[in-house]
Amino acid sequence: MTATLHTPEPQVLDRVDERVVRRRLGPGRRIRFAFWIGPALVLALWSAGSATGVITPAILSAPWDVVVAFEDQWVNHDLLGNILSSLQRAAIGLTLGVVTGAVLAVVSGLSRIGESLIDGPIQIKRSVPTLAVIPLFIAWFGIDQEMKIITIALISLVPIYIHTHNGLRSIDGKYAELAETIGIGRGEFVRHVVLPGALPGFLLGMRFAVTASLLGLVVVEQYNAVAGIGHMITLAEQYGQTDVIVVGLVIYGVFGYCADSAVRLTGRRVLAWRQTLEG
């Protein structure tokens, strides 16, 4: 009895070759939980520097002192309330900025009239730092919650608009020719080709917008805030509590890192159809 050897299909061989080439020329095989390696290394260096005296408490509080300060703030000073207050401001401002930036980018990216009306003001806004116009916002909206949310929204809006608009305008013109050839209407072409093609740009803008919203949060919480991480840092600065200041900075950093990781993981799921070096 002769055994029959089955030759793999050409498409299977092509996929295998493609994966091998990406692994050889690209970043290599993905490591499980790799996104925690960098922060863990920073923490290890910080701990080693504090333990050996290279990093003195006058320069930066030791990690164990920061843990003690975190526990004290959690038990005695309503740290959870401050965290929730900051998250609420950041979430509302970021949501407003993302929605507004995406709508403006779609209108500007899909219409010449829309671009002539919207793109110029956005580029002017891009060149004027939002933090520089906070005094005007205070005069217009006061120093309550509205000013803080609007500031975060405007900071988040620009990267969403820029990257989404660029993604819309970067769609290969051959797709439009193909759609016209096979008789696809404009609405269907926009829904099934243009918007999915602009999604990578939107997600890249989201990563920048998340970081920008936290930058805005750090600044606006210095203005008449009665709760929030920035309020906690301001009080700690007045009393010379360096360890509490570091607690606030670490929380801001954890916010940003977790949010950025969430956007990246979402991008991998949503853009699974793209073949990139990341795989």
UniProtKB/TrEMBL annotation:
Q: What is the lineage of its organism?
A: Bacteria, Bacillati, Actinomycetota, Actinomycetes, Micromonosporales
Where does it localize? Answer: Cell membrane
- Which terms are listed as keywords in the entry? Cell membrane, Membrane, Transmembrane, Transmembrane helix, Transport
Task: Indicate the segments forming the ABC transmembrane type-1 domain, all copies.
Answer: 83-263
Q: What membrane topology does this protein have?
A: Multi-pass membrane protein
Cellular component per GO, a single term = plasma membrane
Q: What is this protein called?
A: Sulfonate transport system permease protein
Primary localization class, coarse: membrane
Q: Which organism is it from?
A: Actinoplanes regularis
Please verify whether the record's keywords include Transport: yes
The Swiss-Prot or TrEMBL record describes its family as follows: Belongs to the binding-protein-dependent transport system permease family.
- Keyword Transmembrane helix among UniProt keywords: yes
